[in-house]
User: Fold this.
Amino acid sequence: MRGRRLERSFALAPPAADAALLALDFTRPREALLSDALALVIERVGRVERPGAEVLHALTLADRHALVRDALVVSGRPAIDAVATCDGCGKQFELAFDLCAVVLPNVDPRTTAVRLPTAADVERARDDLDLLAALLQCSRNGAERARESAEDMIAGADPLGTLVIESACPECGASVRAEADLAGSWLETLRRRASALIDDVHVLATRYHWSESEILALPASRRIAYLELIEAER
Ligand SMILES: [Zn+2]
Assistant:
């Protein structure tokens, strides 16, 4: 299934259980962490049920990014925020990328001039040129010569890889360009949620002396109710 475009047919699992979120190792390298995180939310890819991190790791980056987008759309927050700085006046403002507005090209990786990179390709490569040489099955020199067109093709097949938004500065009218990293933003959101969960467990365990698993087994509404009681006592 490697190299096949499968993300057009998928199913998402119910929101990842808090215990599973806490079990994610956020110190793992990015692509490995992304595979683990996707495994929590993806119930089916193509005909593969419960694909697991290993299967997801073998997908192309383009397919993985499409799955991240789908997970965010289903979670009800299909937007990524980015801070842009105007080159004209130096003012900073927030731009939101509407993920639903990104149209995915219908690329068949079996017919592309460049093989599309998988997470495993990225991990094996020493640098960008090494990655390109592996995808083109040529030397580093050959990859250098083909670099521009090959990178354009890969980026074109994966518009969610680096989100680009261009806009006019509301202050001075100069053009402003912002970039955002979809997968990185999603992983950061998960990391912050896990960190907040640890804080909650700490507060409840300190006060009630329940175990971590007992606290995580509570419905979120009850956990919040107890946290509010503790807060009111302070
Ligand atoms: Zn400006």
Summary: The pocket of zinc ion is lined by residues 86, 88-89, 91, 169, 171-172, 174 (CB under 6 Å). Strands lie at 10-12, 42-45, 48-49, 79-85, 92-98, 163-168, 175-180. DSSP finds ten helices and seven strands in the chain. The chain has a mean pLDDT of 88.
